[in-house]
Each structure stands twice: as C-alpha cells, then as structure tokens.
Give the backbone structure.
Amino acid sequence: MHQDHMIYKSSIFLFILVVTVIAGSRRIMAQELRFRSDYGQLFDSLDQRINSLEQQIPRLKESRDVSYYGLQRELDLTIFVKAYEEYVMEEELDRAGNLVETRLKHAQLRKDQYSVEFYSRYLDLVYRQIKQQRMYYQELLAREKKFKKVYQEIIREGTPESHVKADRMIKLALKYASENNLRETAYYLQRYLLYNAAVMNNFNSPYDLDQLTARAGNFEEVFLPLVESGNIDDIQKAEELLNNCLNYSKLTGTALDSVYFDQQRLAITAALSEPFSREGKEEVAEKHTYQSKLARLDTLNLSGVFKWNDYIVVIDEFLPVSSFENVRKGEAIIHADKILAAYLMTNKLCRSVSELKFGYAYIIPYVSNVKNTSFYYNQATGKWQYITCYTSIVSETYTRNVSHYMPSIHFENEKDTLLQTVR
C-alpha cells in the first residue's frame, strides 16, 4: 500500500508539473514581453523536487523497493523539465527541440510508453513555441516604432538586469533578422545593440559616463585634476577616462563629440612632455605602453594609433567616396596617413609632415562567418571603420623608435593569413 501510494504521488506530481509548465509556456509565448516573472518559482520547485528524489532513491535502490523505478523515472523527467525550461527562458528553442527529440528517441528504444507520451507532449509544445516565436518576431520587427516601444518597456527600471534582458532580446531579434535577410531591420537593431552595450558599460564604470559626456564642465572637473597631477599613473587614468567617454559618446550621441575629445587629448600629450623630460623617454614610454590593448576582428574597436609587434596600426573611421572596395582601401590608407601624420606631429615625434615617407601599408580585414570585409560599418556614426597597418615609416629604425611611444595592441585570434596588402 505504501509503495502504491508513492507511485501514485509520483505520477500526480509529474502530471501537475507538465500541465503547469505547458500552461505557463502558452501564457508566456502569448505575452508581448517575453521575460517570464515566475521562472524563479518554477526552478525553485523543480530543485526542491530533484533534491527530495535524490535523497530517497539510494535508500529505495538498496532495499530493492518496487517504487524505486517510478521515482528514478520521475527524477529523470524532472531534470529534463528543468533543462527544457532553461532553454525556453533563454529562447533557445532549437536546442530545446533537440533535447526533446533525443529524449523521445531513447524512450522509444526502451519501449517506455509513459515517457514516450510525456516527451511527445513536449515535442508538440516546442513546435508550437517555435512557430509562435517566429510570429512574435515577425510582428515585433514589422516597424521600428513597435520594437522601440518593447525595448523601452524592458529597460524602464533602468537597472543592469533590465539592460541584460534587453541585450538578450536585441540579439534574438538580430538573429531573426539575419536569418530572414532583413538588412534594414538589422541595421537599426545594431544601433540599439551598441547603445544598450554603452549603457551596460556605464553601469560598470566608476564614473557616470552619461553625466561626464553631457557637458564640458562635468568632464573637465574629473579629467583635468588627473592630467595636471604630473603623475604618470594619473595621466594614464585620464587617457583611459577620455577613451571611455569618447566611446560612450559615439554610441549614445551625447552632447560632447569626438572633436571635443580630440582637443582634450592634446592636454594628455602636453602633460606627458614634462615627465618625458624629467624621467627620460625610455622610462616613461615603458610605463605608458606596458599594457597591451585587445582588439577584435569581428566588431568595432576603439580608434587610435597603436604599436603592433614591429608595426604601427591606425584604427579610425571615414566616409568612402568610391563604391569599389579596392578603391575604398586606397581611400582608407590616405585617411590613415593623415591621422598618423597628425599624431606624430602632435606628439613631437617628427619636425614636419614633409619629412614623413610612408612605406608599405595594408588593410587588416574584419572576419565574418559569411565573407571577410575590409571595413566595419558603425551605425552610431554612419561611418566605416578600418584597420591600417604600416610596416615602415621613413625607415625601419624610425618606425621602431616612434612605435615605442605608442600604446600596444594585439588582436584576438590574429592570423597572418588575414592580412591583405594594397600597396
């Protein structure tokens, strides 16, 4: 009698569990905002049941209790439900479907009719969810106004957690747009993604980047004391602050623009001149460049002039005139020439632009799963970013000497085979 009662309770729990999950999933899929509020309660309930079963099963197995098999099956199914719901929570419905199909196939091989019926219900459910997911994103992305409304609703609380949810939603929408070749939609989604990333970075910053980039006075109140301290570490902090504010401004369109920050960068150059003369260029350059910045070949990077191995790299943005990529490469290198010349003059690393002779240079392409490309479009600025590498300026000796005073950079998963020459 006790054994039958345990088996009965086990079956009842599974029945209630399936009904609750399926009803909840239908409700969630019908909602406009796809972030379930009761996932915490669901997972708590599942964890409690899993823990309870894991405590009972060893004793029942040892005593060869007939209810052992029923509880073991319940444990397997409960663990499955938790894994399934985790996929649904992340809207990874393809992986949820694969999980169901795998479990169903194994149940059929075991001729476990109860489990076959259990997984079959989930197979029907996941097919409906996939269909509803596609319909949801089709409606959501029909107009940007609709998407913007949903995005603002998600981030309404203005918390880091709300922006993490928004980040997930945007990436799922981007995936749908890419799979359905919705180029214009993908463009504006990229803009939302960059903006949301900038806000998330602001949460992690020791400063309020939104305030610092709103008015010159706000920025200079923090920036100038660091620059004017005469301490190399503080000047490095000032440069890092400037770069973070510049990047935030580009992504969010705040009042202070890149022109303003380029002007403030001159204060860093001037501040470094005193330590240079006092401590010697070699020592200061070592302090100023000891940390290598990481760049990636699959996304936008921070603009600047950098040392890369024995070479010099310029990362910046431009508006190409030609529609031909090879011609655009030439335009990008000409643009990079001007950026590099201005950098060398500003930092007193050459006496005149006329004495600069730019030698061999090439464009480092961005990597894509579809096709590598020479440029990366920045939705926030409407410009194309490029990465130009110089192997020689004036001479190898001059190149090596001036690059010593530049911040170092290295690329994630860099490969020499990706480097395409144009000169």
Notes: The radius of gyration is 29 Å. Residues 144-204 form one domain.
